[in-house]
Structures are given as C-alpha cells and as structure tokens.
Amino acid sequence: MPPSLLLSFRKNISVHQELEDSFILHSANGKFDLSHLSTGLKKAIASLEGKGTTNEELVSLVTQIDGSLNLPQLYYYLQQFIRHGLICHTVEVDRVSLATLVPLTTPSSLEWAEIKPEQKYKLSRFAYCHQEETEMIWESPLSQAKVYLKDWRCSAIIHQLVQAQTCNTLTKIPDVSLQTAQVFLSLLNTAQLLSEIDENNSQLESDTLAQWEFHDLLFHTRSRKGRHDRAAGKSYRFLGKIKPLPAIKPQIFSNVIPLYKPDIEQLKQKDAPFTLILESRRSKRVHGDRAISQQQLGEFLYRSARVRKVFDRPYMECSDRPYPTGGACYELELYLAVNKCEDITSGLYHYCPQQHQLEQISQRNQSLEALLENAQKTNGEDYPPQVLIIITARFARVSWAYESIAYSLILKHVGVMIQTMYLVATAMNLAPCALGTGNGDLFATATGIDYYSESSVGEFILGAL
Known about the structure:
- The protein has helices at residues 39-46, 55-66, 71-83, 152-160, 167-170, 178-190, 207-210, 214-222, 264-270, 274-280, 294-305, 366-379, 396-399, 406-427, 440-447; strands spanning 4-9, 14-16, 24-27, 30-33, 53-54, 87-93, 96-103, 121-123, 128-132, 135-139, 145-149, 194-196, 233-234, 256-258, 292-293, 309-313, 316-320, 332-338, 341-342, 347-352, 357-363, 387-394, 402-403, 430-435, 454-464.
- The N and C termini lie far apart (79 Å).
- With 465 residues, the chain is of the alpha+beta class.
- The model has no long low-confidence stretch (mean pLDDT 94).
- Helix 1 (39-46) packs antiparallel against helix 2 and helix 12 packs antiparallel against helix 15 (440-447).
- It is 31% helix and 26% strand.
- It has three domains: 4-84, Outer Surface Protein A, domain 3 (Alpha-Beta Complex), CATH 3.90.930; 104-222, Outer Surface Protein A, domain 3; 233-464, 3-Layer(aba) Sandwich (NADH Oxidase), CATH 3.40.109.10.
- The longest helix has 22 residues, at 406-427.
C-alpha cells in the first residue's frame, strides 16, 4: 500500500462536548469555542484527536454529512490549526506509523516541503538525535519542529542520508518503496533536517549559515524562546526534589590566608572618576618584574568579588556582591593559581568571599604548572602570568531554579564579573587580561572537584605593571 500522511492534534490538544451543542477545543494557550460549526466540521475536527486521519478522509467526512459547501471552512480551520502549531503530521504505511512531525512553536511558520525526485539530499550538519523517555527524536536548531521516529525503516533511511542520496537510491532499503522514501524525506525536509546537494556534491548553504558552528547555534536556540517547547526561565523544577545549594560554598581546607581589606568609604572619595577608569580600561598581557603584592591582591578581590551580605529569598538562600547576577544566585567561584605574589606561597587557592581569605588547595605541583602553562599559551606570551584567576560555576545554584536558560545565564554572569575585575584592576593600576578559553579537565584534576557539579567557565590573569 502507498504511504499515508495523517493529521492529528498535538497531545496537549483536546475536544470537549459537555453539552449537546457545545464544542470546545482546549490547548495549552487557551480554549476555542467552535460550537457554531456544522455537524460535519465538528466530526472532522474531533477525528483529529488521537491517531488522526488523512486529508482525504476529512474531506470525505465533511462531504458526507454537510455536502461540499463547507469544504472551504474545513480548509480554513485546518490552516489555522497548522498556523497555531496544533497539528502533527504522521507518515503511515500499512497502518504502521513510521514518523511524526511535531511543531514546537505558536504561531508556527512550517510549510510542507515537497521532495524533488532527482534532487540529492543529505542529512543537515545541524541535525541531531536524542532520546526522550521512550521516544527517539530528531531536531535541528534551524527548525520549529521535531520528528519522532517510530519505525526502524526511518533510522535506516537517516543512516543512508549521511551521504548524498536521491529517493531512488533509498529504495535499496528493505520495505522502503519510492513513495515511502518521498513522503518521509518530505517530512524531514519540512523539519529542516535535510540539506540539498549541488552538482559539486556540496551542501547548499548561505554564507551566513556557513559561519555558524553546530554547538553554537544549538546553544543559542535552546537558551532562548522560539525554537523549542520547553519551559524557559525561573521554574524551580527541583523544588521539593533536590535541596538547593547554599549561597556560600562551604570551606574545605584548613590552611587559610586572611587578606587585606581596603577602606571602601575612603576609596569612594579617592578613586579616579568612573569615566576615566572606563576609558582607560585595556587588556595588559605583560606583567612587570615586581610581583603583585598580597595587599594588592586582597584589595582587588575585596572590591570585585566579596560577599556583602547573605539573605533568604523564597525557596533559596541568596547573597549580595559587587557585581550583579540573575536571581542573586551568585554561582561563580574564584580559584587562584598563584605563580608570583609577594607574601603568598606559589600554589592553588580558593577565594572565600564571605570571610575574605584564601584557602590553600595545594602547593606548587604538576597540576598547577599545567594550568599556568595553558594560560601562558592562551595569552601568547613567553612567561606564565603572575596570577591566573579561574572562574568556576556551581552549576546547580542556577539550574535548580532556572530552566532552559541556566548555562546562558552563567556565561552572562562570567562576562559581568570579568568587566568588574577589569575596572577594579584599572582603578588600581594593575595589569588585567581576560583569556578566551581554558581547560576544564585540567582544573578538575588540580582540585578533585566533580566536573559536572563545578567546573571552570572563565579565566582572567592579573599582575603588577
């Protein structure tokens, strides 16, 4: 039998007929009173619940009950349902569902994309597969829809699409007819999971899209609304399930160094004007012959990262510090790989922002050497920095409360902290420079901290001029 294309409502759409003449369509975005429709239209719309039905069957149902005069209304409502992201499309062969296309957004701009029989297609470099409960799903950051695979033949077709294929070449797969290949590829093409291949066997792609890497575009689309159907923002999804992390990371090591505390009120009077500091800010990669002092380091940390107070908010403990963060989560921690500093032994330290002190994690060792060497290479200089500040995130401080946007928020916080450190260092006439990247595994090895609970998300070098 030839394949069928079934239309059905999404799982969160339902039809209620509480009274004799009432006909209410319920969705996540509200309800629609369709009680004024004819009997045939109501029957047709009701048939979209569950497994669904074909366009031909909908036409036949309306025609049998109402006659053909109501067909334009049927087409109108179907188009409206599709435009509002309420309709799924399922490819079915011999009453077996092969795959279902599910819209992700409302309103939806999806348009059915027919396949050209002689055109070569290949799986898009942005397409990716993941498992969700008992379903296998294909998605792309290019698309406003996702495809649920329900039959092995679909997986076999997609496997072949790693190389350029036409519909004809896909019929070599057992139980895959030319019509089945065409309809399934149309489904994938509608979800923008395919790329057309030109005569040079290259994927057709705009210059704009060519400059996006897969992980960057996926991260961009998944941490903003518009191309996924997940909650985004402060949802407290783990409330009552997992205890939130405390606002202040508990101190672990007993060897501590109290740091100098500057007089903030005096600095308010004597500091250079803000605009002068802002305009003077520069990245200074080269450090002077004299090492940064313990007093300078203490003042820098106090002005840029100390805890000013701890307080309670609904559901979680929060703190106040010199730089802003979303929801006062303050998930960022500072670790100092000290190469040269007056009165502080070379080693790896954690900054305790509430007590304003350093706790020593280790003395100078191979792990510290590796961290400093990595920073030196990233900095592009001949010598390691005087002090490497590694910014980490206790991820659960943000992901416990925020959904979809947690890591995006963390990176915004890193940028805010780096700018704060730049301005403080400029005001103090020190040499600051943010680094473009770092090695999370080196940090995990050096500290023994679980990579997935807390890891490095930014690097900043500091020294005396």
